Every structure is written in structure tokens, then in C-alpha cells.
Amino acid sequence: MGCFMSKNADTKASRIARWRATGIVALRDSKLKTFPDEIITLDTSVRTLDLTHNRIVDIPVEINKLINVQRLILAENFIERLPVSLGKLQSLKLMNLDGNRITSLPDELDQLVRLERLSVSRNLLASLPVTIGSLRNLVLLNVSNNKLQSLPESVGSCSSLEELQANDNLIEDLPSSVCNLSHLKSLCLDNNNVKQTPLNLLKDCKALQNISLHGNPISMDQLQQMEGFQEFEARRKKKFDKQIDSNVMIGSKGLDEGVDL
């Protein structure tokens, strides 16, 4: 028994030493029910933390000790709420919380000033915090498969946003501030209740190349009559021409992907 315990201790010690040396903690598919305490003891050493596909329900408040973590991947767990201390992870660039049971995001999200990619698809979000507008470095926001009825007006302050995915929600209208997203390239709103988009969307979002509105009450005629539609069409076509020239595979939707109704 002593030898067995010693071997286990050595294994755990070597694992922690490896994590500390590489900065990468990966425990995917490990059947974890709780957040491992030993991860917290690594504090400033952790750069990437991946606990995908476990059974974790709670994230400890002490996660704020991982001040140098840049990639936090907690997808496919049973997480219901996020601690406000998550806002202390100010080195964070990517956070993936897909496939959990999260009902709200903390206001302290606004402290994640370096965050570039936030994905919280397949959760139970009924709204997004107004403070999300403080994420000025955010490039990707994926809130698909939730219970959102709207997006906050503040989303228009996410000035670096290039891709907004909000498929499979209950969204009826887009805030007019979306027109402020000058870097937005892709807007995906499949399977919502969108009847119209802001009038200046195509005119003001001069980088927009793809709009996906499949499964919404809005009609193609409405988009075609909007100011800026011809310029949008030119960008869309140019995008796919480049993909063809580069021998990039095009999906089954082909060149119709630009506006999907």
C-alpha cells in the first residue's frame, strides 16, 4: 500500500511540475466533479487552462489567483454561475464556456480588458450585461443557442468586433449601435425573430461581408432596399472570389452564404 501511495504522490508531483514548467493545464474528459485545488496552487504559472468535458458545477472564487492565464476553456461542464472574481483575470484573451448551464454573466466581465474571444453558446443566458461594451479588444462574440431576446445597446462599443454569432435565440430587434461596429465582417442571426435590421447597417458597417438570417421573418427585399446593399454585395463577392482563387473549399451553401434568409 505504501508503494502504491508513493507512486500516486510521485505521479501527482510530476504532473504539477509539468504544468508549472509548460504553463498548460489540460484535463479534458477527466470525469472531474470539482475544480482541482492543485491548479489554484500554481497561481501565476498557468497560461492555458482546459477543463473541457467534465462534470464541474462550480468555479472557485480563488480562480482570481491565476492572474497570468490567457486561455480559459471550461466548455461542456455543468457550470451554472460564474464568480465575480473572474474579472481579475486581466491577462485573459480567450474564454470558452460553451455547453454549460450559465444563466447570467457577471458585470465584472468589463475588467477583462485584453479579452479577444468570448464564446458562451449553448447556455441559458436571458440577457448580456451592459458592461460587455467595455471589451474594446473583443474580436469574436458567440452567444448562440441561448434565450436572449435582445442584445444590449452597449455591444456597439465593442469597437474591435469582427464576428458576432447569435444564432438560435429569441432576438427580435438589433440595437442601432451595431452600426458602430466598423470592423464587423460577419453577423450571424439564424433562427431568431428578427423582422428588420437597423436602417444604416449596410451603409455604416463597411467591413461587413456576411449576414446570415436564415429562419427569421425578415425578407430579402428588405435588405436589398437598404442603403449600402450594393457595396455589401461587392464585398461579399470579392470575399468568395478570393476563396476560389485560393482553392478554398466552399460549403454546400456556396456563394449564397453571404446573405442567408
Structure explained in plain terms:
This protein has 261 residues and is of the alpha/beta class. The chain has two domains: 89 residues, Leucine-rich repeat, LRR (right-handed beta-alpha superhelix); 141 residues, Ribonuclease Inhibitor (Leucine-rich repeat, LRR (right-handed beta-alpha superhelix), Alpha-Beta Horseshoe). 20% of the residues lie in helices and 11% in strands. It contains five helices and ten strands, in the order αβαβββββββαβααβ. It has a ten-stranded parallel sheet with strand order 1-2-3-4-5-6-7-8-9-10. The longest helix is centred in the N-terminal third of the chain and has 21 residues. The N and C termini lie far apart (65 Å). The N terminus is likely disordered.
Primary descriptors:
single chain; 261 residues; alpha/beta; Leucine-rich repeat, LRR (right-handed beta-alpha superhelix); 2 domains; ten-stranded parallel sheet; 10 strands; disordered N terminus
